[in-house]
Design goal:
Length: 175
């Protein structure tokens, strides 16, 4: 697979991989940074190593099932944005190191990813999920033009049992 790089006004999105171990681990092991994430926080650096090893391997495939991108602001790695595919539907996700919150970086990265996959890969259907308490994420989804299509209980953070609901947002692009 050819490595993809996406540029925005302020950001550069490039393949996330093992070279970002320390910066990924910084936010992946931080409870405050990950409290709304299903598979985080990581308990140790080995979990981060395994995640990045899998991301590296996926980038080597001719047709990846998912794409994990590092979000770079200047030369600083500040987070990640991803798209996972199942039956032609792209599931969006993002995380930004809390030191860079409230700057619009997650929206800018997610918007660039959506546009890239619409125009270069022909993707027309996107979904995203978030905890109902994660106002910042569902505001990003709404700003992307996504519409809430579902809500149900049972979302759990890896380290804290939370009996909150989960939102599904959907964006379908007509061609």
């Amino acid at each position: 697979m050819k490595k993809i790089e996406i540029l925005t006004k302020r950001l550069r999105l490039k393949p996330l991989g093992s070279e970002y171990l320390q910066t990924v681990n910084d936010y992946a092991m931080d409870y405050e940074n990950t409290k709304y994430m299903c598979r985080l926080p990581n308990d140790n650096i080995e979990e981060t190593v395994n995640f990045l090893r899998n991301a590296d391997a996926e980038w080597e495939k001719e047709k990846p099932e998912y794409y994990e991108f590092a979000i770079l602001y200047g030369n600083k790695h500040i987070g990640a944005v991803s798209i996972y595919f199942e039956e032609g539907i792209g599931e969006l996700g993002w995380i930004v190191n809390k030191k860079y919150w409230r700057n619009g970086f997650a929206y800018e990265a997610a918007d660039a990813l959506v546009h890239f996959f619409i125009h270069n890969m022909g993707t027309t259907h996107f979904i995203a999920y978030c905890d109902t308490e994660n106002v910042a994420s569902y505001k990003i989804m709404e700003k992307l033009g996504m519409v809430r299509t579902g809500e149900w209980g049972g979302r759990r953070n890896k380290s804290a049992l939370q009996d909150t609901c989960e939102y599904q947002y959907e964006l379908i692009v007509s061609r």
